[in-house]
Specification:
binds D-malate; binds manganese (II) ion; 10 helices; binds zinc ion; 20% helix
Length: 304
C-alpha cells in the first residue's frame, strides 16, 4: 500500500490567503523555518496503477499537477484516480469535487449517508456534478463499521469508523452531529495485512478509536491545533477547537498524550496555519520530535 499526502494543511492551507498570524506572516517573509501546506487530502493505492483520492480539497488541481502518478497520460483524457472518498462534508474536504467535473465517466464517490445529505442539500456539489460527469454514490456504513473495497484497487480494504466531531457550519446538524457526519478509516493492505488509521477530524478519543489506533502500523490523526483556544489567542477567530470538532494536541487527555501511548508510527495531519508545530524551530515541534511524533507535509509518502 502506498499513501501520498497531497495536502497536509487544514481548511485555509498555509499560508492562508487573508491571515497574518505569526506563522503565515513569517512564512511569507521567509523568516520562519516552515513549509507551505495545501488543504487536506490523501492519495492511496494498493501498488497497482490506480489511486483512491481521499478528500477532494479546494487545492486539488495543483495537488494533481504536483503528483505525476495521478496523471498517467494513457489517453487524450485520462486519470489514475479510480474513485473519491470523502470523510466529512467540510468545505476543505469536498470542494475539489468541482475540479473533477471533466471526468470522462461517472465519478465514483464513497461517503456516508449524512455526508451525502449535506453534499446534495446545503452544499449540493453532488447534484451540480450531475450536469457534468455525473456521480455514482457508494454509501459507507460507518455505524456498522462495514468494511468495503474500491473498484480498481483490489489489494486494499477500507474499514470505516464513526468519529466524534461536528457537522460543517452550513449543516442542519452543526452541533448535533449524526454518528456518520465524521468518519475515520483504516486502510488495510490485503497482501501484507498492514494498516494505516486516518482521522483528520477527531474531537475526542473513545475506547473503540484507541483500539483501532493501537492496531495500526501507522496513524495519520487530527493535527489542527496545539491549544484549544489557539485561534482566539492569536486573534484569528472566536472559534475553539472543541467547537470545530478538533481535539487539541497539548494538555491532559490531548492528542500528544494519546499518540505517545501508541506502538506504531504516529503522524499529525490537517494542521491549521496558526499551530506552532508548523514552526520547525518551536518548542512545541521539538516536543513532538522527542516523542517520535511526525508532522505531515505535502508530498510525504508512506509505504506499508
Ligand atoms: C474544519 O476542519 O474544521 C473545517 O474544515 C474548517 C473549514 O474548512 O472551514
Ligand atoms: Mn477541515
Ligand atoms: Zn495564519
Amino acid at each position: 500500500m502506498r499513501i501520498i499526502v497531497l495536502g497536509s494543511g487544514a481548511g485555509g492551507g498555509f499560508p492562508q490567503w487573508n491571515c497574518n498570524c505569526p506563522n503565515c506572516r513569517g512564512l511569507r517573509a521567509g523568516t520562519l523555518r516552515a513549509t507551505p501546506r495545501t488543504q487536506s487530502s490523501l492519495a492511496v493505492s494498493d501498488g497497482g496503477g490506480s489511486w483512491l483520492l481521499v478528500n477532494a480539497s479546494p487545492d486539488l488541481r495543483a495537488q494533481i499537477a504536483s503528483c505525476p502518478p495521478l496523471q498517467p497520460a494513457r489517453a487524450v483524457r485520462d486519470t489514475a484516480i479510480a474513485a473519491v472518498l470523502i470523510v466529512d462534508a467540510q468545505i476543505d474536504h469536498a470542494t475539489g469535487l468541482m475540479t473533477l467535473r471533466e471526468h470522462r465517466a461517472r465519478l465514483q464517490v464513497h461517503c456516508t449517508p449524512s455526508v451525502h445529505s449535506d453534499l446534495t442539500t446545503g452544499y449540493p456539489l453532488l447534484r451540480v456534478l450531475e450536469s457534468y460527469c455525473g456521480v455514482d454514490w457508494h454509501p459507507i456504513d460507518a455505524e456498522n463499521e462495514k468494511p468495503f473495497a474500491i473498484e480498481g484497487l483490489p489489494g486494499l480494504e477500507l474499514r470505516p469508523l464513526p468519529i466524534p466531531g461536528e457537522a460543517p457550519p452550513y449543516s442542519p446538524r452543526r452541533h448535533a452531529p449524526a454518528p456518520d457526519d465524521t468518519i475515520g478509516l483504516t486502510f488495510v493492505d490485503r497482501a501484507s495485512g498492514r494498516r494505516c488509521f486516518y482521522a483528520p477530524g477527531l474531537a475526542a478519543f473513545n475506547d473503540r478509536i484507541r483500539t483501532e489506533a493501537r492496531a495500526a502500523d501507522c496513524v495519520l490523526l487530527d493535527g489542527t491545533l496545539w491549544q484549544d483556544d489557539e485561534l482566539q489567542t492569536r486573534g484569528a477567530s472566536q472559534k475553539t477547537g472543541r467547537e470545530m470538532g478538533h481535539l487539541a494536541q497539548s494538555g491532559r487527555g490531548g492528542m500528544v498524550e494519546e499518540l505517545a501511548a501508541l506502538p506504531g508510527r504516529k503522524i499529525l495531519i490537517h494542521i491549521n496555519n496558526p499551530n506552532p508545530i508548523l514552526d520547525e524551530d518551536s518548542p512545541e515541534r521539538r516536543r513532538l520530535d522527542t516523542l517520535g511524533i511526525e508532522v505531515a507535509f505535502d508530498g510525504m509518502e508512506i509505504s506499508l
